[in-house]
């Protein structure tokens, strides 16, 4: 009696085909499972993902909140999309698949409207906080000031688009990042010029407040650097707005003798830190000052600048344009 080899009754090709069908079935099951939102998917809710959470931690939160059916499948999707999850508050307005949730959390698509916020050149951290609070009602302005104050001068004035629930720390980080991107091109030029980057930004913050247009900024820059090099006090009024919130026309003799280190009448040299957040034009003017014979300047009531080479000429301009 001939006994047939068992392998001949189950060809190897059929084995591999069966195995292939098995994995295809599993894959299809995973795709179907991942495409169907949970029955109790939360609607009109914000799910928060805090910074520092692991992928497993995020998956556990989403599973617990019934945002995803399978934590395992969510993690597979995220790893296929790059493996990282961005923190933030994610708005859930309608049921979504695990794949969609994985895509949103991987790209930071929080589903919030982007709010346009324009920060003008010369704004201080207090000014920026007020602008942000006006645009974003829930924004924590006091916390922003506390976080931003040490970076005064390095918060780039620009038009930004922030999430409605953006956190102060994220705004500070973003503004510093944009500042770095815009000023990186000047690093070599500043180094070659012999001045420190900090001094350039401090001077730029003063120029921003003292002059309006590019030509005047460059002339004012030349005058102020010349005063510094000659050992003369800067004698500019802009820092008083930073100290007291007062414009030039509001200053008293007592203000001018205040012992603040930002008082450029009683102290020689630059203030200890920037007095505002300057724009690119002022930074460029601080780096590349126009050569000029002038040593004095003033601004009339309409903002026009008037220059003089000596103190007598400056007094004459005062009589003509100020008094």
Automatic annotation (TrEMBL):
This enzyme's EC code(s): 4.2.2.29
Top-rank taxon: Bacteria
Keyword field contains S-adenosyl-L-methionine: no
Topology in the lipid bilayer: Single-pass membrane protein
Keywords: Cell membrane, Cell wall biogenesis/degradation, Lyase, Membrane, Transmembrane, Transmembrane helix
Site (Important for catalytic activity): 210
EC class name: lyase
Key word Glycosyltransferase present: no
Pfam families: YceG
Substrates-to-products reaction catalysed: a peptidoglycan chain = a peptidoglycan chain with N-acetyl-1,6-anhydromuramyl-[peptide] at the reducing end + a peptidoglycan chain with N-acetylglucosamine at the non-reducing end
Subcellular location: Cell membrane
HAMAP family named in the record: MltG
PANTHER family linked: ENDOLYTIC MUREIN TRANSGLYCOSYLASE
Role noted for this protein: Functions as a peptidoglycan terminase that cleaves nascent peptidoglycan strands endolytically to terminate their elongation.
UniProt protein name: Endolytic murein transglycosylase
